[in-house]
Amino acid sequence: MRKDIHNSNIPVRCMSCEIRHKGVCGALSAEELLMLSAHTRLVNYQSGDELAGEKMPAESYATVIRGVVKLTKRLEDGRQQIVGLQFAPDLLGRLNANENAVSVEAASDVNLCRIPKAALERMVKSNTALAERLMAQALRELDEARDWMVTLGRKTAAEKVASFLLLIATHLDPETVGEKRRFELPLSRADIADFLGLTVETVSRQLSKLRTDGVISIVANRHIEVPKLSKLKACCGS
Amino acid sequence: MRKDIHNSNIPVRCMSCEIRHKGVCGALSAEELLMLSAHTRLVNYQSGDELAGEKMPAESYATVIRGVVKLTKRLEDGRQQIVGLQFAPDLLGRLNANENAVSVEAASDVNLCRIPKAALERMVKSNTALAERLMAQALRELDEARDWMVTLGRKTAAEKVASFLLLIATHLDPETVGEKRRFELPLSRADIADFLGLTVETVSRQLSKLRTDGVISIVANRHIEVPKLSKLKACCGS
DNA sequence: CGCCGGTTTGATACTAATCAAGTTAAGTGG
DNA sequence: CCACTTAACTTGATTAGTATCAAACCGGCG
Fold it and tell me: Which end of chain B has the smaller Cβ count within 10 Å, N or C?
């Protein structure tokens, strides 16, 4: 048995996925953590899999261990918009799920650590620290949504694409050498377009433009290198 | 003394503003409500007043009693985007305010019921029902932000303006006769443009177009009449 | 090798921004 | 009450940016 789980003052990890669930495990005592671990299970999905639909609320929560999960909303005529991206170690699912939900899909291959709805909700009731963590996560998602509203409403296509690259570069712990960053895009061009409110063609053109401007180099389709992060930041319009 | 505050099972109201604070008063016992009332104070602001800046976090919470409050974010070069509108009886302010805030301004003349930060935070600690209400409000704001992301990213100018009118018609309890609605716009054309990610001219043109199409009539600058709500809904693209 | 999805590039169309008047509404002071 | 000022709004002409339509390219895989 791991030694550290007997002391709730030092970082503790979920037994099944060996990750410290952001906003979850950190608020749990060693005892609660053991209880939680008894219920959690590692699950894998492939890119494109639907984890929960707009009309099909999830029957469990989950933390993202690896990969990227996209939250999408659709208009009747098929137009769609990605309204959120979840990276490790974000928590998926919401307390008191309501009608106005989003469709949850794996944007890349993902590993999740599933937590049954009942188990988490029971712990929330008796653990105010955990409730606070979940509140903090909700507020952080709200901030992210509002930041993205500015991008959607007021930035040009070039700024949008640069902002997206910066988002990925800062959320996917890329290979780092000084100001240089190197990473794999977890999203297809079509998904990037749906995230930015653009078309695939425009996304492609703006990536090409960033390349010819020397801001990035496209090593392979999904493999991007940013020679100077500050130069990319300067393209984001804020 | 009001009779109903002695029974926490029936709707109770804040003593200073006589309104049932959504998500706040409803979760309080009569005793707590009295305590809260001792600290609250009614305050008024004029259209355009800044209630809290991006760098100036508010030292108190407040419920909107009357009027509309706008939450704005700005880019360095002056472009701005309204990322949220708060109507009565929304709660302004957030637990554990963080750096990534928005600027809070009165969009119209407003009345607020102020609640000192310390008082509310103290009550949240000892009242899980209140904490749940605040969580619910955060999740509702998140849903609204995500809905608006679809509007910003994927709707046409005409659909955006129609969606805005519908939002106002459904949040400002307009004069209602069957399918007919009549209301005052709480925002200037410039604010509407900042909310929709458009220019003032485009907003004006689309309003004119809705008028010539018979979807609305513009009784006066800010005074709008919608003869058939379902017709307006059909213009919203979803 | 040839197919196929994802991507890039090119030509053109169209939507909304920009630039520029003009109009209405609301004050303000004589 | 009216002339004057100013801000908010509307309308028009033109331009710029992005979407749309179309074709070519590329990499992976049977």
Answer: N
User: Is the Cβ of A236 closer than 8 Å to some Cβ of chain B?
Assistant: no
Same fold, B4-152 and B155-234: no
d(CA B41, CA B99): 27
Nearest CA of chain B to the CA of A79: how many Å?
7
**Is residue B115 a contact partner of residue B28, using CB atoms and an 8 Å limit?**
no
Interface test with A, best of B94, B140, B143, B203 (most A CBs within 10 A): B143
- Cα distance between residue A111 and residue A63, in whole Å: 9
Sign (positive or negative) of CA dihedral A68, A140, B92, B89: positive
State the first-to-last Cα distance of chain B, in angstroms, to the nearest integer. 49
Distance in angstroms (rounded) separating the CA atoms of residues B169 and A141: 28
Q: How confident is the model at residue A28 (pLDDT cuts 50, 70, 90)?
A: low
Class in CATH terms, B155-234: mainly alpha
- Nearest to A235, CA basis, from A218, A211, A210: A210
The helix (H) or strand (E) run that includes residue A84 is strand A80-86
- Asked if residue A198 keeps its beta carbon closer than 7 A to nucleic acid strand D, the reply is yes
Tell me if the domain spanning B4-152 has CATH number 2.70.70.10: no
**At A225, phi and psi to the nearest 5?**
-125, 130
Q: Which of A136, A140, A111, A109 is nearest to A24 (CA)?
A: A136
Residue A67 — pLDDT band, cuts 50, 70, 90? Answer: very high
Nearest to A74 by CA among B144, B146, B142: B146
d(CA A135, CA A123): 14
The Å distance, CA of A66 to C1' of D29, is 27
Total count of residues recorded for chain B:
238
More confident call, A114 vs B33: A114
A82: its two tokens: 């990605």
| DSSP code string of B129-188 | HHHHHHHHHHHHHHHHHHHHHHHHHH--HHHHHHHHHHHHHHHS--EEETTEEEEE-SS-
CA distances from B132 to A20, A96, B84, B125 (A): 25, 10, 21, 11
Higher pLDDT, B51 or A15: B51
Q: What is the pLDDT of residues B137-184, one digit of tens each?
A: 899 999 999 999 999 999 999 999 999 999 999 998 888 999 999 999
- Which sequence spans correspond to the domains of chain B? 4-152, 155-234
Q: State the pLDDT at residue B222.
A: 95
Q: At the topology level of CATH, where does A4-142 sit?
A: Jelly Rolls (2.60.120)
All protein residues with a CB under 7 A from any atom of strand C? A 188-190, 200-201, 203-205, 207-208, 218, 221-222; B 156-158, 197-199, 201-202, 220-221
